[in-house]
């Protein structure tokens, strides 16, 4: 019975992560499994690190300590959600680009106040970091087209390595990162087409990224939590440029206004997306869970992760 429950939890996490702005980590918080998930992720990263250093005995010991029934059931649910929903989202993105962009805009905008509140104490330095990152992201993202056309395998490898960061930072979703990189539709299409070569390269990138970034991000969040979160808020704010429903041109992400009466439906979808993220966060608070950054920052959870 427990594997079935964990499969269902994984499905909900996968459904959240495939939609930009809704974090699978936040859903894990609501379901009460975030700390357990992060602990197993860190152990898995430790296995890869031990193998890289040639410590086979340590790698075997760490490998055996992973809660495999929990992890495999969760992964199966996540993959099932990706396969089930990829074709639906791909079709919607193709047939209703303005409406989907508006919905994603609202979802990411709804995540910004949650990340803002996760900064325990704002000061001048953190405010400067927030503004600088927001301005830099807004400017840099205006220099490229919205989506990478026919990306090379190396692009999928890099996208997987960067997107896995979302597994460590529950305030941000992997799909959001893919949107920022212009790789969202390409990865979604690979899932829908069952392109095993591309998906294998993407997953390989995720494994490499997990091994490289998990320990570093954990340390940064514990030692410089507020600074990292301030930068994250700036990144999310600046990235809204990519999700503006009415881009003007393809060489640069110039912004235009709505055409005709389509702005009303787009506005309603953006508001619905904003409200959905706030509702998920409110559900987590009502169940007594801390804000998304707390489990990573908590000394108690850090001590448990090192055991």
Structural features, described:
- With 307 residues, this protein is mainly alpha-helical.
- Helix content is 77%, strand content 1%.
- Strands 1-2 form a two-stranded antiparallel ribbon.
- A hairpin with a 5-residue loop joins strand 1 and strand 2 (254-255).
- Helix 1 packs antiparallel against helix 2 (24-31), helix 3 crosses helix 12 (196-223) and helix 6 packs parallel to helix 14.
- The longest helix is centred in the N-terminal third of the chain and has 28 residues, at 68-95.
- It is globular, with a radius of gyration of 19 Å.
Structural class category: mainly alpha
Strand content: under 5%
- Biggest sheet details: 2 strands, antiparallel
Gyration radius, to the nearest Å?
A: 19 Å
The N- and C-terminal alpha carbons lie at a distance of 28 Å
Percentage of residues assigned to helices = over 70%
Order of helices and strands: HHHHHHHHHHHHHEEHHH
Enumerate how many helices there are, as a single number: 16
**Strand arrangement in the largest pleated sheet:** 1-2
Unreliable segments of 5+ consecutive residues: 249-253, 289-307
Mean pLDDT: 78
The shape is globular
How many beta-strand segments? 2
């Amino acid at each position: 019975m427990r594997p079935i429950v964990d499969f269902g939890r994984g499905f909900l996490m996968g459904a959240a992560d495939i939609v930009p702005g809704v974090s699978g980590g936040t859903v894990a918080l609501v379901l009460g499994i975030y700390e357990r998930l992060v602990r197993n992720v860190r152990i898995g990263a430790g296995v890869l690190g031990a193998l890289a250093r040639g410590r086979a005995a340590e790698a075997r010991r760490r490998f055996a300590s992973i809660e495999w029934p929990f992890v495999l059931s969760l992964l199966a649910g996540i993959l099932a959600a990706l396969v089930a929903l990829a074709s639906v989202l791909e079709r919607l993105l193709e047939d209703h680009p303005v409406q989907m962009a508006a919905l994603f805009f609202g979802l990411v905008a709804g995540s910004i106040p949650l990340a803002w509140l996760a900064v325990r104490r704002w000061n001048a330095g953190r405010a400067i970091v927030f503004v600088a990152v927001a301005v830099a992201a807004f400017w840099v993202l205006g220099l490229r087209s919205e989506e990478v056309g026919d990306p090379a395998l190396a692009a999928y490898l890099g996208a997987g390595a960067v997107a896995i960061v979302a597994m460590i930072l529950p305030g941000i979703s992997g799909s959001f990162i893919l949107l920022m990189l212009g790789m969202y539709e390409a990865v979604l299409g690979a899932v829908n087409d069952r392109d095993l070569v591309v998906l294998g390269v993407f997953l390989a990138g995720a494994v490499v990224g997990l091994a490289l970034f998990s320990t570093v991000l954990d340390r940064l969040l514990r030692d410089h939590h507020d600074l990292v979160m301030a930068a994250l808020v700036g990144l999310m704010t600046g990235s809204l440029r990519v999700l503006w429903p009415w881009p003007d041109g393809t060489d640069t992400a110039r912004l235009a206004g709505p055409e005709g009466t389509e702005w009303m439906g787009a506005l309603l979808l953006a508001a619905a997306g904003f409200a959905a993220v706030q509702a998920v966060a409110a559900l987590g608070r009502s169940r007594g869970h801390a804000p998304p950054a707390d489990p990573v920052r908590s000394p108690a959870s850090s001590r448990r992760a090192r055991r």
